[in-house]
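## Example pair
The file below holds two records. Each record gives the amino-acid sequence first, followed by its structure token line.
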Amino acid sequence: MMISKTPLEDWILNKISSNGELSHLTRSAIEAFQLEKIRQTISYARSKSRFYRNLLAGFGSDPVITINDLSMLPFTVSDDLINHPLQFLCVSQSAVERCVTLHSSATTGPAKRLFFTKEDLNHTLDFFHYGMSTLVKAGDRVMILLPGDRPNSVGDLLSRALLRMNVESIIHGFVISPEKTVEAVLKHDIKCLVGAPVHIFALFQSGNGRKYLKGRITKVLLTTDYVPDIISSVLESEYNCEAYSHYGMTEMGWGGGVECEAHCGHHMREADIFIEIIDPKTGQVLPDGEAGEVVITTLNRVGMPLIRYRTGDISRFLTKPCPCGTVLKRLDKIFCRMNAAVYLDSEKPLITQLLDEELFALPGVMDYKAEVSTRGNKDCLTITLSLSSKSNRDEVCAAAMEKIMIIPQIESCKKRLFIEPITCFEEIILSPGAQKRVLIDNRKEHL
């Protein structure tokens, strides 16, 4: 099958070459544009933002002459957005079109606050438009399983972007009851879904989902959280549904990068965001191909630019050319989130992703909750499954226990780890779509 080139390439070409001086996109053109935008962003932030004026005070009037010079500047971290949100503002508060309060799924502490102007939101609209054109065309009907009741919320922006393409959308919101959402899909004759991976997976795994969605939903965009390989695999092999992955976060302006038809890495919005991969311990920039922490610098943000913001996500740039033929770089899937890693007796962390690949492979598993606590002088792992109504609960729970026992991080410390018998919720319980799924650490020494 012929793989179409990602539509993001032409979009980025038009942003870089607004006067049409470039006939095609090249890496050198992208990098020259990024360097100029980085320098403009630093100058703008220093003159308008009290936070960056103070942070960059000792770095000279023009600290970035080459891309490599950026690595000499200090990082911005989550605590900065929590403790000093208004100091980041480069515009008056009256010019803020959208303010987002962002609670972390891994902590119960204060929230981050992020501010966006109308121009900032328009950049996101553009990305949603061109990113979604990979999946849908005029006349298609999309259900958005994300919040969209507020103006300029992520669901509202996506719906407006689809309207540019003459694609009709239904903003449904997060999935609470899979069976009721399946009814809405059938009622509105939906062909494509956009939502959290576990929520979309639960729709297909539900009783009516298994009965009605195969062959009806042909494409899905999995977003807002890590995308387990097993979920994409099951959707495609059992339901004939092509699964695309999106990587983004609110700090990026929601949109970051999306897969093309080749399904081998996220093509990033390189005219809007510059990405570095760093060693989480040393802070040194790593070469392409090596895994490390994703660090972003926004290139055209007006309200609240971010310079070298540490995301806490672990990934890498892929080095082989994409089969679609684009010159855009590809960011691999997110391997884990640093603040969601739980260490038992092994030097390697137990992370949600390891449990995902084992548990979602079992028939009827729609979601699960996992937490580590303390029992006596041992760590205690408790897992509770959420199963579809027709599942054999005893069989699935027994199979789940066998699956997790062979995970290396668990197998290596079985003698010092108490594992509760795996049980099921009495009713279908899905992880809140507004939060990223994590392995909860309730041990006293970690509170």
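Second record, same layout:
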Amino acid sequence: MTHVAGFEHIRYGVEDRVATIELHRPERLNAFTGTMMRELIAAFDLVDADDGVSAVIVTGSGRAFCAGADLGGGGGTFAGPELSEDGGDGVRRDGGGTVSLRIFDCTKPVIAAINGPAVGVGITMTLPMDVRMASTDAKMGFVFVRRGIVPEACSSWFLPRIVGISRAQEWVATGRVFGAEEALAGGLVRSLHAPDRLLDDARALAREIADNAAPVSVALARRMLWRMLGAAHPMEAHRADSRGMQARGRSADAAEGVTSFLEKRPPRFVDRVSDGLPDVLPWMEEPGFQ
């Protein structure tokens, strides 16, 4: 795999239509920094701009996934961390949240390959990813209350939707670090893998998407599923589904999907995500920061 130059705290490369983003501060257990925040956002910009990318894997370099915020600044770490721009009312936006929102808006499916410890922002940044796969050696922890702060990176929205409110409250209120088996039992991760198999298994899943699915349909379906988590009634899903079926049913990809199935051959989808997605949710406005 050829890595894109210019990054300091991450590595980015593409091979066989799969992008890999590697958190790369192994000497600090890939602890999160302002530089890493900005580079992750830039990497997902590359992902969305590249029609040669059909899926994304995020993993860590060395023995950790991400040990959370870099605490090298001591007790003042959270008093003035490197955050993003002012939200418009004098409140500076949480840096982990800007990463989570960028991942949420990604047009490609995102797979977390959690290869080791993932605590604090190291685990919350994975919540907007679509699939979390973990090494049997991995440990996770929503440790914020033990540091005198609160959950960030939009995790108060994502975590209860993924694991349920009771499990989320327990993990957040105790702030304890737990093992991969508990993460699996609680629905936080999809599967556990031997450490030396994790990346290969994540790539196999990414390849299944890249080889068989229409990229525009995947991107649109991803957007619909996430947005419907906040819908008030299934009628909103019916309206979105109907718009999506009308738009995609008339596409070249739909014709190719049926034809390739009948001819028993791999599909050759031609529609490009970079050309834009049908607006199937025109009534659901994107909220601004308040």
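Notes on the second record: Strands lie at 2-3, 10-15, 18-23, 55-60, 110-114, 118-119, 131-135, 139-141, 177-179, 191-193. The first helix runs from residue 34 to 49.
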